[in-house]
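## retry 2 of 3
previous attempt timed out at serialization; input unchanged, resubmitting
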Amino acid sequence: GPSRPEAEAFIKDAQLSNVRLLGFVSPVNTIYEVADALAMPSIWEGFGLSAAEAQAAGVPVVASRIEGLEEVVGDSGLLIAPGDSAALAFNLSRLRNEESLRRRLGEAGAQRVRRLFSIDRYISEHEQLYENVHAARIASPRSTAPEDGTHRRR
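## retry succeeded, writing output
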């Protein structure tokens, strides 16, 4: 993206010879199969899909403590203040040097994603939502939906 030149300069200045910026890769799971960690130093995320994908693959995540990432990563990754490049570098270094931490966070992330974002949970929660709406509608009918598709209030 537009910050690539700054990221490349940081990598060079910090002498991170083992860090690669790959750009767009498809299919993405090929990256997670060989990744040691995922860094997400975002300042805004609607939903941290990349973090969820990495965690599902057992890859530990270092991410900004922002809405969207905090929800996904939770306590199964390492969260840093947005814009704190020193904390990002420190935590990536920890993951590189501490195999037990890398393994523990990878396993915790995979469990978290299965628990919170599985298709079974998604289906179950939507079924419950529909049942609740239906029950409320039966208990307190406020409108009718004629067969012609128009909607009229009683």
